[in-house]
Amino acid sequence: MTTGTDTGAAPTRPTTAFRADIQGMRALAVTAVILAHATGWPAGGFVGVDVFFVISGFLITGLLLREHERSGRISLPAFFGRRIKRILPASLVVLAATVALAAWLFNAPRALATWWDAVSAALLVSNWRFEASGTDYFHATDAASPLQHFWSLSIEEQFYLVWPVLLVVLLAVAARGARPVLRSRIVVGGVLVVLIAASFAVAVWQSGAAPQAAYFATGARVWELGAGALLAVSAPLLGRLPLALRVVAGWAGLVGIVASALLITGSIGFPGPWAVAPVVAAMLLIAAGTGAGPAYPRWMFLLANPLGRGVGAISYSLYLWHLPILVFVPMLVPDTALSTVPGMLGLILGVSVLSFLLIEQPLHRTPLVGSFHGDRDARDAAWAAWRERFASQFLYSAVGLVIVAGLAVIAIGPALRMPVTTGGPAAVAAPAGDPLQGIAAELQLASQASAWPDNLSPSLDDAIRATSSTNPARACFDLGSTPDDGSCTWGDASAPKHVYLVGDSTALAYAPAFRAIADQSGGAVRITTIGLYGCRFTQDLIQNSGAGVMDDCPTRKHDIAERIAADQPDLVIVSNAFAAGRTTDGRSLDTTSMVASALAETAGYQVPGRVVFLAPPPLGADLGSCYSRVSSPQDCAVGVDAAWNDFAAATESAAGAAGERFVSSLPFSCADDVCPAFAGTTPTKYDSVHLTPAFAEHIAPAILQTLQAAGAL
């Protein structure tokens, strides 16, 4: 996070006093964020960003107000020049390094996504990109962008593109009349109160309606920066606080920030309303130290100490570098001391110190171009002073960088993996008439492979990139009105047997297999594949955050149930995700309840004894995250998850008791409880859940054999 160099002293002073307590706040905030990303503790470490927002709003607004009160004007070119020097050099270095490493290490779709993440960060719209893409900040299992943390920098700079201009207008209007300084602060404060109230209302509303988007939304965050700005406007009043009240407020604020980090989690409304806790706590801390005398820092020794000041000084570099290091180091040097949490934290600190000394601080302190108004002597003197101050720092830091880089190469060089190897297990021919044995053999070889096959089709990059877009039944599971059966039915229209495949996106992923079964049945079977992604085919309506899913799900289930009851097909195959859920009225459904709800839904089809519950494949590793240019097949091979086993057992038992059938997916998904990312020459999944269309077609004979063995076809 960035903050201004201003320290928030009383506005009547010509210079600003150093705020050791604010440096300590920066240290506390950035430490909370880094620990949360590195270890998952504290659970609410993300509130450090909210603390930074308040600090930043306070410092920058105070700087602008004091400039206006000293000179009668605010120089917007000078302000934006300072911001560019403050944020641009270090951030561009991080962006360039991250894009380069991503191009080398990541799979092609993820590398391209990282490139666009960097572009959006450079254009100060990173948060809008993550908001639009549906990124969930709190899903640690997702393939996190190494540049995701730039969202907060984008919000800050968006605020500072607008706020100074608005402030200039407000100050110009308020300057007319008596007591312009007081009048100006009253006018600015009034506008800030309205701005804060409006933004907070947006935060509360959006956190309930679209929580993933709300976290990154500018409108839902402006109130936090505005809260800091309001403190800056109130600085003359805060300067009159007695020491005793300052100490109480300061310690209350410190406790509030720590408590927020420990107790707040991503499962509650954030940033509205729960961001109030860290924001108010930060406001108390800042207010307590505004205009305080020399005795106050001694009372706030936990913040105003050399360690806090040191970490606070490099907090921007720490924030910039921490996430790329946490993402890339485990890929580069897995199972080494450097890839442990202490190792990565040490590397973050070392790289950040060097970045601060070599890039951030020297370039931030360069004389501002255009500030000398043609005075060549003044310009030369300023540059001479800059060289005198930073020449030796550059030299020593550069030597330190070379030494650290050399030691790193010596230490981790042997552990570096070479780019992804190919030439893995060859395809296995299935025994005549026994597709299941052929698939089992392919899965067995893949589960033990140490190298990726060089002839995967589609390639792993293409599998990740295409997702479900190439699925022939995609339109039959899309949002909108219920599709007609004709466009979603495969096989000969006069086939004697009619089968339905219904369910959520799990059924959609199976659809290519059933199209192949119908097309290859010699006119014996026609299969209708229809459902809705994100819509669990259960009697209860299960919550899903996908846009439009909850609106269309009840109608889609109702229409399909009516069609099945009217058609009376020979078989109905139901496939839903094996996961617990919560109903739209707030009830939590465990495994047993979810299975019972699924059976209650199929009872409405009025086809007793003709329902098959086809299990989804067990969860796999997220291919977009586990597959890279330095990974091996073992990085993407996972065991059968416990939830899948629980659902399978419960579904088999309940279906048997109801006179229906259950078909396991293990025979064509995993070998010896290991589920690989490919079988033969075909990638199995494009994410952690869904089959690739190519693999679904590949296992069609095995699925047919499994259904026949169960007496279903």
TrEMBL record:
Q: Organism, per UniProt?
A: Plantibacter cousiniae
User: Which domain of life does the UniProt lineage start with?
Assistant: Bacteria
Q: Which residues form the Acyltransferase domain?
A: 20-358
* Name of the protein: Peptidoglycan/LPS O-acetylase OafA/YrhL, contains acyltransferase and SGNH-hydrolase domains
Segments spanning the bilayer are: 43-65, 86-106, 158-175, 187-207, 213-233, 245-268, 274-296, 316-333, 339-359, 394-416
UniProt keyword Acyltransferase present: yes
Query: Annotated Gene Ontology MF terms?
Result: acyltransferase activity
In this protein, which residues make up the domain named SGNH? 483-704
Supply the Pfam families for this chain.
Answer: Acyl_transf_3, SGNH
SUPFAM superfamilies under this entry?
A: SGNH hydrolase (SSF52266)
Which ranges of the sequence are coiled-coil? none
Instruction: Please provide the record's keywords in A-Z order.
Output: Acyltransferase, Membrane, Transferase, Transmembrane, Transmembrane helix
